[in-house]
């Protein structure tokens, strides 16, 4: 940047403020002397360490792609200034950036809906309704599938924005009162939140699963909907870290169930502290009334067509899970596990509808196949505990699946209303990149998802750019930045000659006596050794410092994964004997949740379908669906870590913009022709040069 003049304003790095604005006093070769704003201090910095400020007429601009100087400080500055004025939505090229206001804003009522539905979108302020309206118009006029991809960190506002999208679509299509499908789509949410959300440190109402909601349209009307879900955090059923909670539903039904029902489910006089799976969690959330939420849940259940028997069966299964958690052992040191006196084994057996002795055998002394024969194995208390915990997790996941399946049946495409073919608007609400101090298999799954979604974005942007150039016959060497991400994606999911992380993990899961260590060794041998580095040349893999894991160079940054428990997490084993007991349960609801085990060959197949493989398949299906759509991208931003309104932490925001592709989008846009300006805007801005040229 050598075209700096004195009196120009630039951004310089600043310890306390992340960036500070400064005025140029003197330029000297590669260095520049600047005076910080509101200060008399002068400092000398390298020109390369400065970024240009935009002229004041760009202050609080609606679309950051229009900034003359498109750089990190300018983007953060713009978002911050807007945020101070409650302008939480800002465009950045193809992205809509949404900064969580942490306070209710009066920008979502019916007046706003009409304004965006009837108004000129270009003239209106950036808004989640604007994006939604555009998707709706595309579905109507172009009859092409649309998608809105909403991502961001936990607490950034994904779910709130997703709700606004659905509210908007329901609202603008609700004139034809012939069906209450819109109402049903809205009522699915409280159910999903009860069973899929929990209080975490970052968010009192955190979704512990990802979802893709598809809303089908025909002739501009909603004719059906469907919900797909991903990566439910079912380990939360067993334990929660300090200051967090289990899924909301446990607290809601414990405080809301009527007395007669409680007695029947063995919950009489019992509360959160009486159950091992809840004991260490927060009993309440400030300002949240679990009993009232329970009432709302029952209303939603009814609207969604759940009958009393089904609702009761769901609560019964939840109680069963809690009782399973309370089965203790005599001594945790023994070689052979024994149930503790008073362990609620009979209650569990009675509620689960299977014989207590068969359950006892399956947990304490299971028969396993050794060659052609079955032998009895002895189980330590820790192993027995793990067997029970796995059943509890599995039960919870099956209830969740049952509920979503049932909701989907209720929202199924209404053939009678669908005149001709329908198109959908799909809304994806899924966690963004996770880079924690300790990262495990769950983070790999979510980061792999984000790597694929970012690739999808980059590729989409490339196609659009390419079309622009082709339209204007501009000779340009196209670069598909989507390709940049392929080496990392291969490193994770390749199944060819050089197996990726997931395939190697699957492989280790069937090798006898394999351990997390042996998995790591294989991984390093395949990807980390110099002789193989030549083969792959990806540079996306390295071993971590303490040799407890490995590092993947994601587009969002380097992530250090610890391999502890990966084999177990990927296998997610569950006692086949107990599965079969549940499948033969005298309780028809439970029996239906555990359909008969498939034939031997099917079984083998099933065993191979690890958590990683299943996720990969689901993601492939999602990507297929997304590629049939015109995508729209919403990036939610957490403004601070204190859940406070009006507090804008610049460094925190900057880190998110780097991770979530907004800055990447800017980089790609700049690698093309930097600016596209309409002639009417171009003339007043640059005509001065013509004038100057004439004078000179
Ligand atoms: N547009 C908004 N208006 C008002 N409050 C908001 C808005 N967006 C987010 N919030 C507040 O922030 C909280 C967290 O938002 P939300 O649950 O949508 O985050 P999330 O990104 O879905 O997080 P997670 O990944 O943990 O589910 C909300 O409960 C709400 O209090």
From TrEMBL:
An MF annotation (GO) of this entry: actin filament binding
Domain spans labelled Myosin motor: 59-696
Residues bound to ATP: 152-159
UniProt xrefs under InterPro entries: Kinesin_motor_dom_sf, Myosin_head_motor_dom-like, Myosin_S1_N, P-loop_NTPase
Location of region: Actin-binding: 619-641
Example GO biological process: actin filament organization
Any Pfam family matching the protein: Myosin_head
Sequence intervals crossing the membrane: none
Keywords assigned: Actin-binding, ATP-binding, Coiled coil, Motor protein, Myosin, Nucleotide-binding
SMART domains cross-referenced by the UniProt entry: MYSc
PROSITE patterns linked to this entry: MYOSIN_MOTOR (PS51456)
Family: Belongs to the TRAFAC class myosin-kinesin ATPase superfamily. Myosin family.
Entry-linked PANTHER family: MYOSIN, MYOSIN-11
UniProt-recorded name of the protein: Myosin motor domain-containing protein
């Amino acid at each position: 940047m050598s075209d700096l003049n004195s009196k120009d304003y630039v951004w310089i790095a600043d310890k306390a403020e992340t960036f500070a604005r400064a005025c140029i006093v003197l330029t000297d070769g590669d260095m520049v002397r600047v005076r910080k704003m509101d200060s008399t201090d002068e400092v000398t910095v390298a020109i390369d360490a400065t970024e240009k400020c935009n002229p004041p007429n760009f202050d609080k601009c609606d679309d950051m792609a229009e900034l003359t100087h498109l750089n990190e400080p300018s983007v953060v500055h713009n978002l911050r200034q807007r945020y101070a004025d409650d302008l939480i939505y800002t465009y950045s090229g193809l992205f809509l950036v949404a900064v969580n206001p942490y306070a209710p804003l009066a920008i979502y009522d019916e007046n706003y809906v009409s304004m965006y539905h009837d108004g000129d979108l270009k003239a209106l302020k950036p808004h989640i309704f604007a994006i939604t309206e555009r998707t709706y118009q595309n579905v109507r006029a172009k009859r092409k599938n649309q998608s809105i991809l909403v991502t961001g960190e936990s607490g950034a506002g994904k779910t709130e924005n997703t709700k606004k999208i659905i509210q908007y679509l329901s609202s603008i299509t609700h004139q034809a009162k012939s069906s209450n499908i819109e109402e049903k789509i809205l009522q699915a949410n409280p159910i999903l939140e009860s069973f899929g959300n929990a209080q975490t440190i970052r968010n009192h109402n955190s979704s512990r699963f990802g979802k893709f909601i598809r809303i089908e349209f025909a002739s501009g009307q909603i004719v059906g909907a469907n919900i797909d879900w991903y990566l439910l955090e079912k380990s939360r059923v067993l334990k929660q870290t300090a200051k967090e909670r289990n899924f909301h539903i446990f607290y809601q039904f414990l405080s809301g169930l009527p007395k007669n029902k409680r007695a029947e489910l063995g919950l009489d006089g019992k509360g959160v502290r009486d159950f091992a799976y809840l004991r260490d969690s927060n009993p309440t959330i400030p300002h949240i009334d679990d009993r009232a939420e329970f009432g709302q849940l029952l209303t939603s259940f009814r609207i969604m067509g759940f009958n009393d028997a089904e609702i009761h069966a769901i609560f019964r299964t939840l109680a069963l899970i809690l009782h399973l958690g309370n089965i203790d052992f005599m001594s945790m040191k023994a070689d052979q596990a024994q149930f503790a006196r008073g362990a609620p084994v009979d209650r569990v057996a009675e509620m689960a509808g299977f014989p207590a002795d068969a359950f006892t055998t399956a947990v304490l002394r299971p028969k396993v196949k050794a060659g052609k024969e079955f032998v009895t194995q002895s189980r330590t208390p820790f192993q027995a505990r793990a067997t029970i915990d796995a059943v509890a997790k599995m039960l919870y996941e099956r209830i969740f699946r049952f509920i979503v399946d049932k909701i989907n049946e209720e929202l199924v495409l209404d053939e009678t209303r669908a005149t001709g073919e329908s198109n959908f608007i799909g809304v994806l609400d899924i966690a963004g990149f996770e880079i924690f101090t300790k990262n495990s298999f769950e983070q790999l799954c979510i980061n792999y998802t984000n790597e694929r979604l970012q690739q999808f974005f980059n590729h989409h942007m490339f196609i659009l750019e390419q079309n622009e150039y082709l339209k204007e016959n501009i000779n340009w060497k196209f670069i598909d930045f989507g390709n940049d991400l392929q080496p990392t994606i291969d490193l994770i999911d390749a199944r060819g000659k050089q197996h990726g992380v997931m395939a190697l993990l699957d492989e280790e899961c069937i090798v006898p006596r394999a351990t997390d260590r042996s998995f790591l060794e294989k991984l390093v041998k395949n990807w980390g050794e110099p002789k193989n580095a030549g083969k792959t040349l990806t540079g996306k893999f390295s071993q971590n410092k303490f040799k407890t894991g490995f590092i993947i160079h994601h587009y969002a940054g380097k992530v250090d994964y610890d391999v502890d428990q990966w084999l177990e997490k990927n296998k997610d084993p569950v006692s086949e004997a107990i599965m079969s007991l549940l499948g033969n349960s005298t309780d028809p609801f439970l029996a239906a949740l555990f359909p008969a085990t498939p034939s031997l060959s099917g079984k083998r197949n099933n065993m191979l379908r690890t958590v990683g493989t299943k996720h990969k398949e689901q993601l492939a299906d999602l990507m297929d669906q997304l590629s049939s759509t015109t995508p729209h991208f919403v990036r939610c931003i957490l403004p601070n870590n204190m859940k406070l309104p009006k507090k804008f932490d610049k460094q925190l925001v900057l880190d998110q913009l780097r991770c979530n592709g907004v800055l990447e989008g800017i980089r790609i846009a700049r690698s093309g022709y930097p600016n596209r300006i309409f002639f009417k805007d171009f003339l007043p801005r640059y005509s001065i040069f013509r004038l100057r040229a004439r004078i000179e």
